[in-house]
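note to self: dont lose this again. the chain is below, predicted strucutre after it. 210 aa total, dont forget to put it in the shared folder this time
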Amino acid sequence: MQNSFELFCFLKNQGYLKNPPHKLWWPNAGSFEVVIGAILVQNTRWEKAFEVINRLKMQGLLNLHSLADISAENLQAFMKDLGFFRQKSQRIVVLCNNILSDFGDFENFCAKASREWLLSQKGIGNETCDSILCYGALREEMVADNYTYKLLKSYGYELEGYDELKEWLVCGLLENYSKVCEIYGYEIPINELYARFHGKIVEFCKEHRV
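---
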């Protein structure tokens, strides 16, 4: 496998994505829910994180203002079956307050928040940052994760660090963008391409236990 375009073609030919919950793969992409989900899913199975999201929805708490106003201690009550639930509850409350303070609302955050701003927030690393930007703010940011690292390692790649892994994923797609559009049959937006490509990788790795 010479580049990420070849990986993309392989996954597409294998039928991925398979019945995604959203066109962009992540459930409710383009919504504030993604910000919270990206934090909850850290070192946690997605199914467990999704249970917490549903609990917050049922209580009318899954919005920026409610999570900025709630205490971390009260938020923990919805999250006790998650790993690191105390840290996550504190970081969610602080992040929501910082979004309100610096951007005013979620829409303005999506339009103006920089990658540097997100990475300066406690508990937000590269993968979480790019997940929020790609799936929440619908930006042209490719997500690289441990699934990607393990998959490429199985093909003999030894890429050092997140930035190198992300660059490998992006370069092959952009260099062959016209071919990607031919495969899809339309000029696919870069954000959609990145979102779906990451989803293909995750689905394949989960199904094949990579």
